[in-house]
Design goal:
It contains 5 helices and 11 strands; from the N terminus they run βββαββαβαββαββαβ. It has helices at 34-47, 82-90, 111-128, 150-156, 184-194; strands spanning 5-9, 13-19, 22-30, 53-60, 68-72, 97-104, 132-136, 138-145, 163-169, 173-180, 199-206. One of its GO terms (biological process) is regulation of translational initiation.
């Protein structure tokens, strides 16, 4: 798993199903931080405050990462909701994700095995149709080069998924550039070759 590039939810997503007369509503969202995961959970709990249970789980970080996770059975028998939901998330191939499964009890007891299947299946159903996008960790560089290298520099930007944030013209030309961290080494090499070494490249900051 490349921790610098991975799938994340593209937005808010909701599905629902009925199991033995109980209504299960699954809400999935992007959660790049623990704080945002908890805020999302609180919003869903507020929306469905009349439900019997609002069970939840989240994984902050790359798919399968257990460094920042959380879960809650929210009143269901211990181990029948939060843990199965988290397990489904960890195997779902999506990172930075939070999910709440809301249950309106329909009068039929599902038993522990039935609950585990219901909550696992609800998360899997939510992930199946989830719109996703790619999270790309990026880095910003300061680049200083001669005027003669401007055209070549601009032509090489798309190949390295690099974007110019600002430019400044003086005795030389200065750029601030943002690009995926996985592209930095190749970008440095290509830029050094292009300018025959007449370039200054400084790392400014990286995100995530």
């Amino acid at each position: 798993m490349d921790e610098k590039r991975y799938r994340i939810p593209a937005g808010f997503h909701r599905v629902e199903q009925d199991i033995e007369r109980s209504r299960f509503i699954t809400t999935v969202a992007h959660a790049p931080t623990v704080e945002e995961a908890k805020a999302f959970i609180a919003r869903v709990r507020e929306e469905f405050q009349d439900a019997n249970h609002n069970c939840w789980a989240y994984v902050v970080g790359p798919p399968g990462s257990t460094a920042q996770v959380g879960m809650s059975d929210d009143g269901e028998p211990h181990g029948t909701a939060g843990r199965p939901m988290l397990t489904a998330l960890l195997h779902g191939g999506v990172g930075d994700v939070a999910v709440v499964v809301t249950r309106y009890f329909g009068g039929t007891l599902l038993g522990k095995g039935g609950l585990v299947r219901a909550y696992t299946g609800s998360v899997q159903q939510g992930l199946e149709a989830l719109p996703t996008t790619e999270r790309v960790r990026k880095v910003r560089l300061a680049v200083e080069l001669e005027y003669a290298s401007i055209d070549g520099f601009r032509r090489m930007l798309p190949e390295h998924e690099a974007q110019v944030l600002s430019e400044e013209y003086a005795a030389t030309v200065g750029y601030r550039v943002e690009l995926p961290v996985t592209r930095v080494d190749a970008f440095r090499t290509a830029l050094t070759d292009l300018t025959l070494g007449q370039v200054l490249i400084e790392t400014l900051e990286s995100e995530g």
